[in-house]
Amino acid sequence: MKRLLVSxxxxxxxxxxxxxxxxxxxxxxxxxxxxxxQQGRLIPVCPETLGGLPTPRPPAEITNASAEQILNGQGCIxxxxxxxxxxxxxxxxxxxxxxxxxxxxxxxxLAARSPSCGHGEVYDGQFQRQLTQGDGVTTALxxxxxxxxxxxxxxxxxxxxxAL
Length: 164
What we know:
By secondary structure, this protein is of the alpha/beta class. Helices cover 32% and strands 17% of the residues. The protein has helices at 30-38, 47-50, 67-71, 86-103, 137-144, 155-163; strands at 4-7, 42-45, 60-63, 76-79, 107-109, 121-123, 131-133, 148-150. Strands 2-1-5-8 form a four-stranded parallel β-sheet, sandwiched between helices. A two-stranded antiparallel sheet has the order 3-4. The radius of gyration is 15 Å and the shape is globular.
């Protein structure tokens, strides 16, 4: 039976940077997520809090780099005020990977667009709510280790994958 890491904010935990949650993004999956939770198949995580960041916290964006470059020690993640929070994001990604490996997670359902959990697109580092192609740091690290990553918009693929 497949096990799935899930961004805790998607499960209604108020861990988003602004202290809110992202449950509305997966409302279409509510009943399946409940069933998978009851089956013990979900592993809630918040990479940003695992990295030591508080909730709420200033928004942060990957600046002039890719998540892969961040993981390789190049580039940084900054708050809008210019605070470098790169190490917290890397530590959170590493801790999330450890949890995935400890619990045998095969996949991850991650909040979209964040510098941690973004998959396929993230904010561009200009704090103008503009998107660019790429992944968040946690997503990139999980992918490096063969863990399949999904966005809330990937529900059909996620459902089919969980059924295999």
